[in-house]
Specification:
Blueprint (H helix, E strand, L loop, with lengths): L2 H11 L22 H7 L31 E5 H7 L4 H5 L37 E5 L2 E2 L19 E7 L4 H4 L6 E7 L5 E11 L6 E12 L4 E12 L15 E3 L9 E3 L2 E3 L7 E3 L9 E5 L2 E4 L2 E4 L5 E5 L12 E13 L4 E17 L4 E8 L7 H9 L4 E7 L8 E19 L2 E22 L1 H8 L1 E3 L5 E3 H5 L20 H7 E26 L2 E20 L30 E2 L2 E23 L2 E15 L3 E13 L4 E12 L3 H5 L3 E8 L6 E9 L7 E12 L7 E13 L2 E5 L3 H9 L10 E2 L15 E8 L2 E17 L2 E18 L6 E2 L16 E9 L5 E10 L2 E2 L12 E2 L2 E14 L2 E10 L8 E2 L13 E2 L9 E9 L1
Parallel strand pairs: 2-5, 33-38
Antiparallel strand pairs: 1-4, 2-3, 4-5, 6-7, 6-50, 7-8, 8-17, 9-10, 11-16, 12-20, 13-14, 15-16, 17-18, 18-21, 19-20, 21-22, 22-25, 23-24, 25-26, 26-28, 27-32, 28-29, 29-30, 30-31, 31-34, 32-33, 34-35, 35-39, 36-38, 37-38, 39-40, 40-41, 40-42, 42-43, 43-46, 44-45, 46-47, 47-50, 48-49
Length: about 950
């Protein structure tokens, strides 16, 4: 049956329904809400609703207390409902909403440099996780990652009641970072009772096993004047440790160079042309063993090559080696949360809360790569017949290339993160006004443990094996420079499993990089209505904030650790007076740096008309904020909005704002990190391992955002339970920060076309300038640097349709969410405008931006105890990359629809409520279309394989139990 037809029938059979409890905050009331007690009985996974008898300030404003009156689009999502169709983390559930695109997670591309490459970071409209602000109960969540972003796994899931998603710029209300919007996690402050849950899951292939247990408790104290609640959650996810564990992910790469004569093409079964898992000998055409490979330990055979790809590095098929990185990072975490509330007086309320997330995850990356290393032809590990062949050819040395995936374990970059947040404050009333004062402390200690980070010096010493006078095989340096490499163990590389465990232990080191971040944040506000106008109360708010963030790092493997080439015979060469780096991957120490921010803001909501013809209500909303950064200057942000209720059915709204995203401490002062990258130098055509240097830029300034939204909400009274909203958005960012990779083909071409005058030439070093194409002028260093680009811009529309009613006398609901984002531009002087919308792998982003994203949710309750939920998510087709000057054989990536099904059964026994559920994700077992980044030519099987956001796991099952008492 046609895929689209089967999906349509499936959805129709389930009544085309979706979460009834997910309501859009700005719409008028739909069907009457269920009685809280009844709702509590029906859904034991949902903590009882918080007290809503008092006005609650709406996210996105300090003065609006009714979501129906917000000029800024806000979507309110019940946390329990997200976990119904995606029973993993709240962030995974939020990423089902089409407004999110490009979020980072356990499926992210390799990114070990100084941070957590498998953190859960939310990303609105793929403008970057650092351009949307994360709040917890209305307060800024301190950064938990070294790049200044927030790993939302630290949010306590069991006691989060709902999540408010604001899709508009609100820097004037909340400060820097709120350019694309705000995500506010709202806890349930009034939870009473006990909630316990346990679940386990596994893919249909038997991997990706995961378990989760959680417990939440809460009770009133002191006759109701106090309240205490706490939760603990444990999560373990084994992940998928090899991409080859999926039969469709067969070491995929893009080959060619993007020219008309050698266009890029997406290929499977790509292998390195010059390296095998056992090693290839290169000793000249007169040498009888030239080009042969060690298929077996110590035995050479003919190297069977595959089909040429158009790239010198790689071929399809044959015996060449390939990368095989982890597909999904494993994760283990402990999350704790506690909160205490107490009414000091009738008008003053005190609270203190603490949240901690202690997590451990890992990515599996490169094994050691010997790329053309020089070997002594009398190496005693080399069988005598091959030594004789080399002697006959007059070769005292030869070169050797081996991908040591079977000889040595892969590099394992493990991140241990201890993330803590404490928030305390006072809230009260003073006449007509409400006030609050809060202090937030955040601390993260992130330890990046690089298991199997190899030491080049020890590697080169171990490769140079000789016999001592007693006939023992030892390292040459042991005889020539005793003590220089104490304990050196000679390495036998001649075969897939020829190396001894002792030799591998000698060359591979465990290095650590410890990053400490701290935040102290004090904020206060007072709000209220000083007087009433003819159209209602004038609400105003005055707020101020002081914030200090600090950052330091300590590394056991730094770029200053270099080799002493005077003691090594081979492979260690000083170039232009610079000694080679000691470690494959290194991070520089970072002394304490800090950033202090002072802010003051004013907001007003002004009623203009009330209960006149065509104007049920008309309100104007405005805010202005002054922000001073001691690192990057002072800025003024503002917002203006209008909310026009024509009648009870129809509402128009619009906003316009000026927002900022100030550079973080990581942007400004990130320590230098050095890794090795094998990529093509498009000036000389040479591909070889080259240092990649990344670090901060202290000259950065704030990005300036200009956001406009306009929308309409229709809740027709004659169709019970229906609401429809359409919102248009336009976001322009000037002075935008972007991480530029010097080896990117677009930036290389811009440099060479300029003859060396382009600023992108500063992202590479080479001996003889930018016009000499001789291989001797091959690049010596690539750089990855943050710079202020000229402009980024995106625009589009969000559509939401909700319908909650009954069918055959039973509850059902329909929710359809759609985002159309036809353009996401990045404009830079001297370069073509890059279009990221509809692109799987943009020039500076490895995360895709679909032009169309649709999520449809299904909820049907055929009996009082039985519930069916279905999620159908669809994204439009992609093109492979955004640079129009590059040529592709076929850049098309097909659209994709994937389905989740959840079946739950509820039982009530006395005061206890039980729910058992079965969730099947990717119900129809849809494999994602294969895809890859153009920078994967020399690294088949490492980057990409599929477009991030698609589900690469396949059909998976989760069974769980929830108990509420």
């Amino acid at each position: 049956m046609n895929r689209n037809v089967s999906v349509a029938l499936l959805m129709a059979g389930a009544s085309l329904a979706c979460f009834s409890s997910i309501a859009q905050a700005q719409t008028a009331p739909a069907a009457p809400a269920a009685d809280p007690a009844t709702a509590q009985d029906a859904t034991p996974q949902t903590p009882p609703p918080a007290d809503t008898s008092q006005d609650v300030v709406v996210t996105g404003s300090r003065v609006i207390r009714n979501g129906n009156d917000s000029p800024t689009p806000i979507t309110v999502v019940q946390a329990a409902d997200l976990q119904t169709v995606q029973p993993t983390t709240i962030s995974d559930g939020l990423n089902l909403l089409p407004v999110f695109s490009g979020s980072r997670s356990q499926y992210g591309n390799p990114n070990p440099a100084g941070g957590n490459g498998a953190a859960n970071e939310l990303n609105l409209r793929n403008l970057g996780a650092n351009r949307n602000l994360i709040l917890f109960d209305g307060h800024r969540v301190p950064p938990t990652l070294s790049d200044g972003t927030v790993d939302v796994d630290m949010i306590p899931q069991l006691l989060v009641q709902r999540v408010d998603v604001v899709t508009g710029g609100v820097s004037a209300v909340y400060g820097s970072d709120a350019v694309s919007g705000v995500i506010n996690f709202i806890p349930n402050r009034h939870f009473n009772g006990i909630l316990a849950q346990a679940q386990g899951g596994v893919s249909q292939l038997g991997d990706d096993a995961n378990q989760e247990v959680g417990l939440a408790v809460g009770t009133d104290l002191f006759g109701g004047r106090g309240h205490i609640e706490a939760s603990y959650e444990y999560r373990n996810d084994d992940g998928v440790l090899r991409r080859s564990d999926r039969n469709w992910d067969t070491h995929i790469a893009v080959e060619g160079n993007g020219s008309a004569g050698a266009p890029f093409q997406l290929l499977s079964n790509v292998r390195l042309a010059n390296a095998t898992f056992g090693g290839v000998v290169n000793c000249g055409v007169k040498c009888s063993i030239n080009g042969m490979t060690f298929d077996q330990n110590g035995i050479l055979s003919q190297f069977v090559h595959g089909t040429p790809t158009g790239s010198a590095c790689c071929e399809v098929g044959g015996e060449g080696a390939y990368y095989d990185d982890s597909l999904k990072a494993p994760l283990r975490s402990h999350q704790v949360f506690g909160r205490f509330d107490y009414d000091l007086t009738d008008n003053i309320h005190f609270y203190v809360m603490g949240s901690g997330d202690f997590k451990d995850n890992a990515q599996y990356l490169d094994p050691p790569l010997l790329s053309g290393v020089t070997m002594n032809s009398s190496n005693p590990f080399l069988p005598v017949q091959y030594q004789n062949a080399l002697t006959a050819a007059g070769q005292k040395t030869f070169t050797f290339s081996e991908f040591m995936a079977y000889n040595a374990p892969r590099e394992e970059v493990e991140t241990k993160a201890n993330q803590i947040m404490v928030n305390t404050g006072l809230e009260g009333k003073l006449g007509k006004f409400k006030w609050e004062a809060n202090y937030t402390y955040g601390s993260t200690r992130q330890t990046v443990i690089d298991h199997n980070n190899y030491d080049y010096g020890k590697l080169y010493a171990a490769l140079d094996a000789v016999k001592d006078p007693s006939g023992n095989i030892v390292c040459d340096v042991t005889l020539t420079h005793p003590g220089a490499y104490s304990g050196c163990v000679p390495l036998n590389p001649f075969g897939p499993s020829s190396a001894s465990a002792q030799a591998i232990d000698y060359i591979e080191q465990t290095t650590r990089y410890v990053i400490n971040t701290q935040t102290h944040d004090v904020d206060a506000s007072i709000s209220g209505a000083p007087f009433n106008t003819w159209a209602g109360p004038l609400n105003v708010a005055l707020s101020g904030e002081w914030r200090r963030q600090s950052f330091n790092g300590d590394s056991t493997a730094t770029p200053n650790d270099v080799l002493d080439c005077t003691v090594l015979r081979y492979n260690c060469t000083v170039k232009s007076g610079v000694s080679p780096a000691q470690y494959f991957r290194s991070f520089a120490d970072r002394s304490d740096v800090s950033q202090t921010v002072k802010e003051v803001a004013f907001e007003a909501d002004v009623p203009i008309l009330r209960d006149v013809r065509f104007f049920k209500a008309l309100n104007l909303n405005g805010a202005v904020r002054y922000t001073d950064y001691d690192t990057s200057g002072s800025y003024v942000t503002w917002k203006g909005g209008v909310d026009w209720h024509v009648d009870n059915d129809l509402t128009f709204r619009a906003t316009k704002s000026r927002d900022i995203r100030a550079p973080t401490l990581s942007d400004l002062f990130a320590p230098t990190s050095v890794s090795s990258i094998t990529n093509t130098d498009y000036l000389t055509g040479v591909s070889r391992p080259t240092p990649l240097v990344a670090g901060g830029n202290p000259n950065l300034k704030a990005e300036i955002g200009h956001t406009t939204t306009a929308g309409v909400v229709w809740t027709p009274h004659f169709i019970r339970g229906l609401s429809i909203s359409v919102d248009w958005f336009n976001i322009q960012i000037t002075n935008a920060l972007s991480s530029e990779l010097g080896y990117n083909v677009t930036l290389q071409n811009a440099c060479y076309a300029s003859g060396g005058s382009s600023p992108y030439c500063e992202l590479q070093d080479r001996p003889n300038g930018y016009t000499d194409t001789d291989p001797s002028n091959t690049v010596t260093t690539w750089y990855n640097e943050q710079i202020n680009l000229s402009q980024a811009r995106t625009y589009g529309e969000d559509l939401e349709i909700n319908y909650a009613n009954e069918i055959f006398g039973r509850p059902f609901s329909v929710r359809l969410l759609t985002t159309y984002q036809p353009h996401l531009y990045f404009k830079t002087p001297g370069l073509p405008t890059l279009e990221h919308a509809g692109v799987a792998f943009a020039t500076n982003l490895l995360y895709p931006t679909p032009k169309w994203r649709v999520s449809a949710f299904v909820n049907f309750k055929p009996t009082d105890n039985f519930t069916i939920d279905i999620l159908e998510k669809w994204r439009s087709a992609y093109t492979m990359q955004d640079d129009k000057s590059l040529h592709w054989v076929d850049p098309h990536i097909a659209s994709l629809a994937q389905t989740n099904l959840n079946i739950a059964y509820d039982v009530k026994s006395g005061r206890s409520q039980f729910q058992v559920f079965l969730n099947i994700s990717n119900l129809l077992d849809q494999d994602p279309p294969i895809a890859a980044f153009s920078g994967t030519q020399t690294r088949p099987g490492q980057y990409g394989g599929w477009a991030i956001g698609d589900d690469p796991i396949g059909r998976a099952f989760t069974f769980g139990v929830r108990v509420r008492r």
